[in-house]
Amino acid sequence: MTDFGTSTGSFSSFQEKAGTIPMPKEENGQVSKNGEGLQESIKECDESGQNETQPVSPLTFPDGGWKAWGNIAGCTLISLTAFGQVNAFGVFQAYYAVNQLSDNTASEISWIGSVQIVLLYISGLILGRVLDLYGARGLLSAGCLLSTFSVLMLSLSKTYYQIFLSQAVGLGLGVALQFYPLLVIPSHWFRAKRSIAVGIVVAGSSVGGVVIPIMLSRLFDKIGFAWSVRAMALMMFVLQAISIPFIKERLPPTKNKKTFDFSALKEGKFLSHSLSGFFSAFGLYTPFWYIELFMESRGSSANLAFYSIAIMNAAGVIGRVSSGYLADRFGRFNTLFPVASLQAIAVFAIWTTSISVAETIVFCIIFGFASASYSSVASSCVAQITTDQSQIGTRTGMFMAAMAPGILAGPPISGALLSLRSNKSLSAEGGGAGDYRYLWAQFFVGAMLVAGAAFSFITRMACSRSTRVRV
């Protein structure tokens, strides 16, 4: 459930940073619907003569055609293969625990997935400039080659340090190279239909999170780990090699070279929203990492447990698409707080009390939906609380960086709590309804998500104290 779909705000920021597209005027913190005021803004810029570049009319955005949709198709396939395998790390976590890394703790194994994902979150701070120099195809090609090479090295890895270098570092960097171009490209070709285009690309990561776990679960027993991973490498390389020629940027490079906006630290709404992301990040990925092992502890067969991650990601597809619609209709912060709360409710009300496989599957569906919704809406909220439109990209990167510590440390902390509880639990070797090894980790995850939801509520009320206002 990587946060690839995080940001309509960051998608739209590229044009705004480039200084070529005046943004629609805002009324009460809300951008006017259907781009009202855009033409007036363009006219004002023309009359003032202060713009260094000629404004681009919104009519120049293709918003369709084979080139535009070809870009979206290419981005979607890369999203499916690159971020799909990131979302499938729970399969590797469970496999390593009983095979190559059976002597390592759950916390040590989870560092592999955490480092891989955190590289995505911090990559945007530097890759924007690299994108200006080498273009989208350059970064995507480098990412494709590095990712494929790293997965092939993973198929040969036997020890912890070998797996860490190939999967956490090598594959993490490869996917990170592809992350920022996929954030930027849709905004080059779509404006009126951008939500649809972004939704398609974002859904690709969740679809990959469904396909890859099922594929690996079928192949591990039939052809072994090494050849299963090589099959994944082949799929990644072929689909990405086909996709890259269809992808091309069309707008000038960004002029705003800032990587950090210190003025944001003086704004209460941005700080509280960043704290929401910071705390929520500690709990977002732990269920994805450990749900397969938890299913087995509740009496599930290994085959059904494999599907738990696919179920969570399938629910995430619905969450990503529906949350965008709800945010457009009712307001971003009006959507963010309920889905942030739903994550915490799912953990405390369902996961901690699950004593059967059926209850765990219900948790997978609800948490998968809520976590994907939160990830999709949270970063797009940054644009709404940013006054200077040229700083949207910078502040989105700052928000994602605020989530990085939780993404890096959350699953390992949960793994350490799991190991500690296992050493104290009388039923550590048992399983079933009497197995409470996961309880401390579940409480930790739930507490972090409650804190994240609380700061979401604070930010919502800071925008407007009226509950009937669309914010």
From TrEMBL:
Protein name according to UniProt: MFS general substrate transporter
Start and end residues of each stretch annotated as Disordered: 1-57
Biased composition (Polar residues): 48-57
Protein family membership: Belongs to the major facilitator superfamily. Monocarboxylate porter (TC 2.A.1.13) family.
Any Gene Ontology CC annotation: membrane
Keyword Ion transport carried by entry: no
Gene3D superfamilies referenced in this protein's UniProt entry, alphabetically: MFS general substrate transporter like domains
Chief location of this protein within or outside the cell: membrane
Coiled coil stretches, renumbered: none
Domain Major facilitator superfamily (MFS) profile as annotated: residue spans: 71-464
Organism: Pyrrhoderma noxium
Recorded topology in the membrane: Multi-pass membrane protein
Superkingdom, taxonomy of origin: Eukaryota
Transmembrane segments: 77-97, 109-127, 139-157, 163-184, 196-215, 227-247, 268-290, 302-321, 333-354, 360-385, 397-418, 438-458
Cell compartment(s), UniProt: Membrane
GO molecular function: transmembrane transporter activity
